[in-house]
Design goal:
single chain, alpha/beta, 4-stranded parallel sheet, about 10% strand
Amino acid sequence: MAEYVTGLERTQEYIDRLQGVLQFFETLPQEKRNPVQEAVVGLMLDHSKNVLDAAKNHKPLMCTWYGNCQEILAAMGIVYYNPVFDLMFHLGLTDYADAKECDRFNLDDKMCSLVRYAVYSMVNRLHPRPDCFVAMAEPCDGQLMLHQAFAESDYLNWIVIVQSTFVQGRSRLHNRPELRSY
């Protein structure tokens, strides 16, 4: 695997790959084209460009988990990414290269694949460094390991982790000193 320093390199690879896929679609005869598929790839391309722009131009950038209502962030105009989604979206386009690397990654093999992908991708700097990580809102045995790995990483150890918990059916944010000063 190539060595990544800033996470921008992998995001640029995603952009280049998605542009290539869209260019390939344009070469197909009209009866073989799928407008829904083209739209999804176009959305992924726009998303990757937004992430790269935010990272390069020091705009706020959030990392979030797949179950955290990302549509709310999108509606608020907040640029975000999910550390698992991009890897999984590109697996079929890369002969499952990240899946093969992730299988060799030094993390408890009893962890679910989603947590393994997230830790693998962030520790190996496959995404730009976020300003904030909105942690899992759903109960998960691997949650502690995910957050611990992020905290121990020299790439991520300074980012704010916002953790939501549910108490008697209501959500509240942990009262953490670093959030008050953010």
